[in-house]
Amino acid sequence: MNPIKKLFDNIHPYVEEGGKFHAFRSLVDGFETFAFVPNTTSRVGSVNIHDAIDSKRIMSLVVIALIPALLFGMYNVGYQNALATGHLADATFWGMFWYGFLAVLPKIIVSYVVGLGIEFVVAQWKNEEIQEGFLVSGILIPMIVPVTCPLWMLAIAVAFSVILAKEIFGGTGMNIFNPALITRAFLFFSYPSAMTGDAKVWVSQDTIFGLGYQATDAYTAATPLGEAAQAGFTGFAPETIQNAITGLIPGCIGETSVIAIALGGLLLLWTGVASWKIMLSVFVGGAATGYLMQALGLTEIQWYEQLVLGGFAFGAVFMATDPVTSCRTECGKYVYGLLIGFIAVLVRVLNPGYPEGMMLAILLMNLFASLIDYSFVQSNINMRAKRATNK
Amino acid sequence: MAKVIKLRKGLDINLKGKAAKETVSTSCPGEYALVPDDFCGLKPKVVVKEGDAVKVGDALFVDKLHPEVKFVSPVSGTVSLVERGDRRKLMSIRVQADGKQEARQFDVKGDVKSLLLESGLFGFFRQRPYDVVANPEDAPKAIFVSAFNSMPLSQDFEYVLAGQEADFQAGITALSKLAKVYLGVSAKQSSQALKAAKDCEVNVFDGPAPAGNVGVQINHVSPINKGEVVWTLGAEEVIFVGRLMNNGKVDFTRTIALAGSEVSAPKYYKMLVGQKLTSLIEGNVKVEGSRIINGNVMTGIKTSVDGFLAAHATEVNVIPEGDHADEMLGWIMPRFNTFSTHRSYFSWLFGKKKEYVLDARIKGGERHMIMSGEYDKVFPMDIYAGYLVKAIISGDIDRQEALGIYEVAPEDFAIAEFVDSSKLELQRIVREGLDILRKENA
User: Fold this and answer.
1) Which domain holds residue A308?
2) Which pLDDT value is given to residue B116?
3) Burial class (CB in 10 A: 0-12, 13-18, 19+), B4
4) A20 inside domain
5) What is the pTM of this model?
6) Quick check: is A289 in a domain?
7) Where are the domains of chain B?
8) Tally of domains in chain A
9) How far is residue B293's CA from residue B271's CA, in Å, rounded to a whole number?
10) Given CB atoms, is A383 within the 8 Å cutoff of chain B?
11) What's the whole-number average pLDDT of chain B?
C-alpha cells in the first residue's frame, strides 16, 4: 500500500466524529483529496461512470494560467524599482526578479492563509468538504493590488470578501460577486490613498533583504491611464503602448503585461475553462466604445490603447470569465461581455476622479448577470407556454 | 423518405468490451424473479401464493390502482418465494422454473389494449410525463419507440432484430391500433425492417448519444405539453408484442449484450426477463473488484452475481469498481489512460477510436454547480438543463413545469451527469423531482 495513503488512513480515526482532533477534519480531508483522487464510487441510481474532470483540476488550471502574468509581475516590480531609482543600467534580470519575488510573496501568503483559513473553518463548521474556489481567488487577489499595499489591509480585505461576498451566500458556486474583485473594491473604497491617488503606490521604493534600491526622494510614477486622466493630456508616446503590451509600466502586480495575460488566456480558451464568448465580447465592447468615445472627441486615447492599458485585459481574461458570477446562458454571455467592455471604457472616459473602470464594470455586471440570464430563460419558457396553447 | 433529424449536441463514450456479434443460448431452468421496482411508479399487489403453479403469461402481481395492468410470469413453474422487505414492501416474486415453458394461450382477435393488459405486456409501457408505468385509462397522443440505443456498451438492436423482423412489424401494427406510432431510427442503421417499417412514422436521428433516448426523439418530433401523455416502449418489447400477436403466447426472450472491460469474451446471450444472472456471469466475468450492472452502464443499477435480469434491461455491463484505485495527485497529473471531454486531459489527442476502461469512481467531490453550459453541450433538447436541475433542487414546481420537466426522464440526464465537473447526481435529482411532481399533481 502507498505509504502516504497509509498515513492518511492512520490519521482518520483521530479526526472523525468523536476523535481527539475532530476540529481538523476539514483540513485533513482537504489535503487527502488533493493527494489522492477520492475512491468514492457512484451510488445506486446514478451514472456508473464519470468523466475524470473535477473542480480541483479546473481550479488548478486557472492557477496555472495565471502563472505567466504573476512571474512577469514579479519581474516588473523589480524593474520599476530600478527604473524609479535610476539604477536600471546596473540592475540584473535575476536581481530585479528576486526583488519582485520577495515583494510579492508575502502578499500571496497572507491572501492564502487568511482566505483558506476561513474556508477550512467554514467547511469544518458546515461539515462539508473544503471547496477549491479560493485557490483561484487567493492568487488573483495579490495580482490586482498595488505592490505597496500593506499586508494588514490585504488581510482585512480578504477576510471581508471571503466571509461577506462568498460564504454567507453558500460558498463557491453560490456567490453573486467575484470575491477577488470584492477584495479590491473593499481596499479601494476603504483605503483609497493606498490604492491610487497620489501615485506613490505603484512602485516599490525600499530595498528588501539587500535587493533592489532605496529611492532617495519620494518618487511618484502614475500609471499611463492615471496620466491620461490629468488635464492637458494629448495622447501617448508610442513607447508607452509598446511597454504596455510587454508590461513594463507601473500598475497592479499582475495586470500590466498583455503578452503574459494572453498566454494564460490561450490556455483557458483551449481547455474551455473560460468562455470565449465572454472574453471576445468584452474586447469587442471595449474597442467599440473606445472608438465611439474618441470619435465624439471625449478622449485622446485610441480604442486599441483602451484594451492594452490598465486592468482591461486582465479583467477580460481572468475576471469577467469567472463561471460562477457571469451569465450561465450561452446567449447571455455575449450581452454580459459587451456590457462589461462598454461600461469599463465609459467609466474611464467620463469619470473625472478615477482613471480605471474595469473593476466597477465587472462588479456591476455580476449584479446584472442573473437578469440577463432571466430574459433568455424566460424566452424558452414563453416558447413552451405558447406551444401548449397553440397546439 | 423518412425525415432525417441531425443532432449536434451529445457525447459518444467509447468503452472497452463491446459485445461481439455472436449469440449464445442460456439454459432455461432455475430460479426467476420479477421485481416490482423495475416498473417505476408502481404499487404492486400480489395475486399468487407461494407454492402456486404458474404458466408463462400467468399474472404474478398487478397494479394496485389499476388491477387490469398485470405483470406475468416469464416461465412456467412454481412460485417459490414472495420476498418482502422493510414495512412489508414487495421486493420480488420468485418462480422456480420447471423447464417445460408451458404457456397460456391468448385470443389475439379481440381488442389490442385488453389483450396487452391481460398478457402482461402493457406493464412494459412507460409514459411521459414522469417516466412511470403507463396508465391504461389515458389516451396517449402518440407511442414512441426508439430502435437504437446510443449509450456506450449498449445492445445493437439491428443485430438483435435479424430474424425477428416479422414479429417486430406485427408489434408496430398492433401498437398503431392504440395511437399514432413514431419509430426513431439511427442514421447508421440500414435494416429495411426499421427504415421501411409500416404503420408508423419513421424518423432518422443522426448524432451522438443520447440521440437514441426516446425522450430526445419526442422533443424533436412532437414535444409534450402540459396535460398531454405519450407512451414509450422499448424496441425489443415491441418484438414481445409481435410474438404475442403472431403466436398467441407470451415470450419474454431477450438477446442481451454482456459487455464491458471485465467480461472475458463479450457477446450476446439469449435470456428471459427475470432470469438469474449467475449462469451468465460465471466463467465469463472477472467478479472480484468488478461492478455488475443490471442494464446499461449509464442508467443501470448495480447488482450481484445472483441478481436477476431487470425487466427493461437490454444489456448487462461489467466495469471495474475502482474503490481501491488510490490514484495520486489527480488534479495535476496528465492521466493519459482516463477519458475526459475536458482539454486538460489528453483524450482529445487519441481520437475517437481509442477504447477506454472506466471504473465506477466519481473522480471528484460533489460541489455546487460551478461551470456553466456543461449540461447544455450534451443535452440535445430545447430545454435549459442546468436551470431545470436547479428548479428541481429548490423544489419550485411552477418553474419546473415552465422549464419543461414533463418532457424529460432521468436517463436523458445520464450523459450530462457523466460530464458534470461538480459531480451532482442528476439522474437521482430528476427521478426524485418527477416523483414529487407526480404526487403533487395526483
Assistant:
1) 274-376
2) 95
3) exposed
4) yes
5) 0.92
6) yes
7) 3-247, 258-264+273-320, 362-441
8) 2
9) 16
10) yes
11) 92
Residue B97 has pLDDT above 60, yes or no: yes
Q: Which residues of B touch A56 (CB under 8 A)?
A: 330-331, 364-365
Q: Where are the beta strands (DSSP E) in B101-251?
A: 126-128, 132-133, 142-146, 181-186, 201-206, 230-232
Given a cut of 90, is residue A42 above it in pLDDT?
Answer: no
Cell of B102: 408451458
Asked if the Cβ–Cβ distance from B370 to A55 is below 8 Å, we say yes
Q: What is the DSSP letter of B222?
A: S
pLDDT attached to residue A147: 87
Cβ atoms of B338 and B356 within 8 Å: the answer is yes
Cross-chain residue pair A47–B414, CB shorter than 8 Å: yes
Give this complex's ipTM. Answer: 0.90
Residue A306 lies in a domain: yes
Torsion of CA A381, A387, B1, B4, to 10 degrees: 0
What residues in A contact B323, CB-CB < 8 Å? 39-41
What are the pLDDT digits (tens) for A231-280?
667 778 788 888 888 888 888 888 889 999 999 999 999 998 999 999 99
Cβ-nearest to A44 among B301, B366, B387: B301
Most confident of A7-16, B92-101, B318-327: B92-101
Cβ-Cβ contacts under 8 Å, A131 against chain B: 367
Q: Which three cell numbers stand for residue A342?
A: 462598454
pLDDT at A159: 95
Give the number of beta-carbon pairs within 8 Å between A and B. Answer: 216
Cell numbers for A40: 468514492
Distance from C-alpha of A52 to C-alpha of B364, rounded to nearest angstrom: 8
- Of B16, B2, B38, the residue nearest B273 (C-alpha): B38
| Contact with chain B for residue A109, Cβ under 8 A | no
- What does DSSP say about strands B142-146 and B253-259: parallel, antiparallel, or unpaired? unpaired
Which A positions 290-309 lie with beta carbon below 8 A of chain B? Answer: none
